Amino acid sequence: MDTKDLTAWIREFAGLVAQHKDELTALDSAIGDGDHGVNMDRGLTAVVAALEAEPPDSPSALFKKVGMTLISKVGGASGPLYGTAFLRMAAAADSVLDGAGFAKVLRSGLDGVVARGKAQPGDKTMVDALGPAVDALDAALASGAGTKAALQAAADAAEQGREATIPLVARKGRASYLGERSAGHPDPGATSVTLLMQAAASTLGS
Amino acid sequence: MVGLVVVCHSRALARAAAALASEMTQGRPVAVEIAAGLDETTFGTDAVEISEAVVAADSGDGVVVLMDLGSAVLSAETALELLDDDQRARVVLCPAPLVEGLVAAAVTAAGGAPRDEVAAEAMAGLAGKQSHFGALSEEPGDPVSRTEEAPSAVVRVLNPHGLHARPAARLVSELRPFDARVELRNESTDSAWVPASSLTRVATLGALKGHELAVRASGPQAQQAIDRLVTLAAESFGESPVDHAELIKSGPALHRGSPATDHYPRSERSSPAPCGQPGIVDNSDPPSPQPTDTADPPSPQPTDTAAAPSPQPTDAAAAPSPRPTDAAAAPSPRPDQAAALSPQPTDAATVYGLTWQGTASSPGIAIGPAVRLHETVLEIPAEESRGSEAERDRLGDALATARREIGRLSGDIFEAHLVLLDDDDLLGDARARIDGGATAPQAWRDATDRVAAEFDALPDPYLRARAADVRAVAAQVLRALLGVAAATVDGEGILFAADLTPAEVAGLDPTRTKGVVLSGGSPTSHAAILLRTKGIPAVVGAGPIEVTEGTPAVGAGPIEIAEGTPAAGAGPIGIAEGTPAVMDGSTGEVVADPDPKTLADFQARVERQRTRRDEAHKRATEPAVTRAGVTIKVGANVGSVAEARAAAEHGADLAGLVRTEFLFLDRDTAPDADEQEAVYRRIAEALGGRRITLRTLDAGSDKPLPYLPAPVEANPFLGVRGIRHSLVHRAMFAEQLRAIVRVARETPVSVMFPMVTTVGEVFEARRMLDETTGGNTPAGMRVGMMVEVPAAAIRAAAFVPYVDFFSVGTNDLTQYTLAAERGNADLLSLASGLDPAVAELIDGVCRAAGDRVLVAVCGELAADETVVPRLLASGVRELSVAPSLVPLVKQAVRQG
C-alpha cells in the first residue's frame, strides 16, 4: 500500500465519521461531554482539506499531516490522542507498506495512544478497540492470512472490543465522573476507532 | 523571567484568568500567553497553538504551563513533543489548579524566581483557601492552631459494640465522597494510622466502646471530612442518638490530660428496633426463675406463647440496652417489657423458646425442624493464570455480579458487605496477588482469608465475629468467579434464611420445605410472590435469625444464643439446625423450640387449615358466588404453560394474567409471532378453552432483554418499561400483537397493556392493534389495561371509552402510590396489605368503570383473604391469583 492507498483510507475514515457524527455525539452525550462526533468531524474535515491543498508524497508525510491537523483542530481529548497516534505512525512508516509494515505502524500508533492517555485495557477508552484490532491484525498475518483478510479481522476485533466496552465503567476522562452510570453504553472513542479500522478493511489490501 | 502559558478549553476563561493574575504583578509584567479554545466561542484545546504559546512566552528562563482539565492536559503533553529538545527541557507542565495556580505563579515569576519555584508556588496556590476553611471551623479564641496543624480531631467511640462492621461501613461510606485523605488511629491502643477509606483497615483498629480515635485529614475537603466524622461519632455512627455535648471535639492539643473520662456516657440507649425485630420470650410453663443480675424484678410470665404480646417497635425504642452491665444504669422499662426485651446472653439456660413476630407472607401452617441453606463447597481449581489483565477482569466481573446480587437486598448488614466489595485494602491485595501470578479465584480467596484472619485475631469477640461478614462476601464473589450455584437446602422442615433469591425459591421443593422464615424481604418481594405461587407458607421480615450447626435443642430445653446477640440490630439470633419449630404464614408467628402447649395449638391450626383446604378443593371448580349472589370470576396468574395446567387443576375460571415475559427473557433473540402463537395456544389449551388474558411484554431495564440493550436507568421502576417499552420497540410489539390476534381468532383472548400512564398510550397501542387485525377484530377479543400507575387510577374515567376492562396491579400500584419500594424490608409496614390510599384509588377506578368496564385485581392483594371482601365491596368483579390459591380465594369469596 502506498501514499495514495493510505490517503484513501483516511478519506474513508473521514467519510464514516461524518456519516456517524450524530451517533458518536449521542454516545458521548450519554457518558461524556457530548462533543466527540462534532470534534472528530471537524478535525477530519480539516484533514481532508489539508490533504487536498497539499497532497503528501510519502506515508510518513501523510500521517504527520493527519496527526498535526488533528491535534490542532479536534479540540477535545481525541485530538491529542488520535494526533499522537498518527505522529507516532509517521515516525514508524516506510515509504511503501506491506501488511506487516502496516501492522507495525498501527502498533506504534497504539503505543502512542497508551502513552498519551495512560489508559489501560478495560478503562472504557479507544484503547479497548484499538488494542484488540492491532493484536488481531498481527495474529491474522502471522497465521498466513492475506492483508485484506487480516484487516477485516482487525476491524471485527475492534467492533468486538467496542461492544465489550458497553458494560464497563469508565475510568478515564470526563466519563469517569459518571462512575457506574457510564456502564451500559459503548465508549465513543472505541466506536470511532472501529470506524477507523472498518475504513482500513474496506480501502487497504487487495 | 519565567513565562507562563494558560491552556484551557475556553478562550474567554483564559483571558480573564490572565487578567486576574496580571493585577497581582502591576509594574512587573510577566509574560502570560494563552492557548485556549479553538476560536472565540468553540471549546477545545490545540496542541500546535500551545507549542507556539510556549515559544512566545519563553525568554530563555523557561515556561510554566497551567492547564484546566481533560484534553488540556493531553494537548499540553502533545505540544511538548512539537518543541525542540532545548526548549522542551525548559518547560514545566504544572498540575496546579488553574486560577489559584496562575495567580501564585504570576506573583512568583514577577519576583524573578526560577521555574521550578514558580511551579511549586503554583501547586501551593490552594493553601490559602484550605487554611481559610480550616480556620473557620476552629473554635474561636484558638488562633494558635489555625494554620499550624492539619485538620484533626479526637472522638470517642460510644457504640456498645465498638466500631464494628456496620458503623465502620457507615464511617467509610460517609467519608468517601469528601475530597480528602482521612486517616484514623486508635489512641487508646496506640495503633498505627489507617486510611479511613478502607473498611477492613478501619475495623482492624479494634476500636471498642470508650476508645478514643484520633483522626487527621488533608486535601481540599479535609475539614469538612473531619466535621462529618465528628458528627457521625456523636451519633454513634448511626447506631444510637447521643447528645453532641458528650463528645470531644478539638484539635489534638485540646483534650490531652482532660479529666473528662467520667463525663462520657457510660450507657447508651439502644436504637429503635427495626420492624420485625425478634422479641425473646420465656414461654416455659411454669415460669422459669429470672436471672438475678438485672435491675428489674421478674415480670409475670406469659403462659401461652401464641398469646404472648410480641414486642412492638415503639416499645423497643424506649427499652433499655439489653446488656446486663448497662441495664442497671439505663432507664427502667415497664416490667412487662423487661422480660420480653432483656434476654441474658450470659445466662442462656434461662431462655426456653424463641418467638418472632414477622410479617405474614404466604398463608399456611408449618411444623418441622429448622433447616438452613447449605453453601456449596467452593474449591479453587488448579489452573494457570491467564495473565494479570484477564484475571483482573474476571475478578472485576465477579465483583460486579456480587454487587448486583447484594444491591437487591437492603439493610445495614448488606451495606457493610457492599462497602467490602469496594474496599481499597482488600481489592488492592487481591489485585497485587493477581499481578504476582495468581488466578482471580486464588487471589480473592487468599486476600479475603487474610482479612478474615485479621478479624479472627482481634481481642474483642464481637469484632472477631465480623470475620463472618468478610467470609460471606468472599464466598459470594468466589461463587460468581467459579460459576457455582448459591446454596441448597438439606432435609425437610422449615427453612430459615436471611433472604432468598428468586432462583433459590424456584429451587425449593414444597414437599420438603414445609415453610420459610426470612429475616428480611417483604411480602411483595419476588421471593415472597414465588413462595405464594408454590404454596409454601412463609413469614418475612422476621429480623435476624440464623440457623447454625450444633446440637438441636429438642423439647423445652435451652436455646443457645449466638454470641453478641442481644442488642437491637447487633447480630443474628442463632438457633441450632434441627431445632423443632412452628410457624403460621397467615399471622406471621414463628416459634422455635415450642413448648407442648404451643405445639398442640399449631397442630390444631394445621387440622383446621386442612379441613378448610379440603372443603375449598372439593369446591374448586364450582363458581365463586358471594352471599349476595354475585358471581366473581377467580382466575390465575400464569407465567408458563405448566402454570396454566396448574391453574386448570386448581379450578381457575380463567387466566386473569398471562405474564408473557417468560417467552422473552433469557434468550438471544426475540420470539417471532409463530413461536409466540404456539405458546399462547398451548396455554389456552391447558386451560381448556377458558379465557386467557395475555399481557403484552412488560420489559424494561428492571427486566432487561439481552437482545435489546437498554440504557442503564437510575430507577428502572420509573423508567421505560411496560407499554412505554413496547411503544419504543414497535416492531417487537407489532409481532406480539400479531401472535395474540391469531390466537384470539380461535379462542377467547383478552389483551392487556401494562404500565399505562396516559390515554395517549392506550390510544396508540389500540391503533397498532387495529392495524394488526386489519379492522377485523376477533369476536371474543377484549382489550384492557393494567391500572398500576397512580396517574391512570386517578384518571380512570378518561380511559373508560378505550378499554373493555381494567386490571389493577396492586403490587406496583402500592409501590408507586406509597413511594415505597417493594422488597425493602425497612418499608414493610408501608408495602404490605391494602393501604387506605390504594383502597381509595381502587374505589375510584370502580366508580369510573361503572357498568361499562369490568374491574379485575391481579395483584397479590387479590389473594389476601382479609382483603377480598373489601375489594368486592368496591366493585371488583374478577380476581386473579397464584394457581394454588384459586380454591382458597374462591372460598373466601363465598364466605366474604
Span from first to last CA of chain A? 9 Å
Q: CA-to-CA gap between the ends of chain B?
A: 95 Å
Which architecture of chain A would the CATH scheme give at its second level? Alpha Horseshoe
* Integer-rounded radius of gyration of chain B: 34 Å
Query: How many beta strands in the DSSP annotation of chain B?
Result: 29
Superfamily (CATH H level) name of chain A: DhaL domain
Contiguous runs where pLDDT drops below 50 for at least 5 residues of chain B: 134-148, 241-352, 554-570
Main sheet strand line-up of chain B: 9-20-19-11-14-15-16-10
Which CATH class of the largest domain in chain B?
Answer: Alpha Beta
Do you know the CATH topology of the largest domain in chain B?
TIM Barrel
Structural class of chain A: mainly alpha
* Count of separate structural domains of chain B: 5
Q: Work out the count of structural domains of chain A.
A: 1
Largest sheet of chain B: 8 strands, mixed
- What's the helical proportion of residues of chain A? over 70%
Oligomeric organization of the protein chains: heterodimer
Helix vs. strand class of chain B? alpha/beta
Report the count of strand segments of chain A.
0
The third-level CATH topology of chain A is Serine Threonine Protein Phosphatase 5, Tetratricopeptide repeat
Q: Greatest contact pair?
A: A-B, 33 and 28 residues
Please report the number of helical segments of chain A. 9
Subunit structure (chain B): Homodimer. The dihydroxyacetone kinase complex is composed of a homodimer of DhaM, a homodimer of DhaK and the subunit DhaL.
Keywords (chain B): Cytoplasm, Kinase, Magnesium, Metal-binding, Phosphotransferase system, Sugar transport, Transferase, Transport
Domain HPr (chain B): 150-240
Region (Disordered) (chain B): 131-150, 250-344
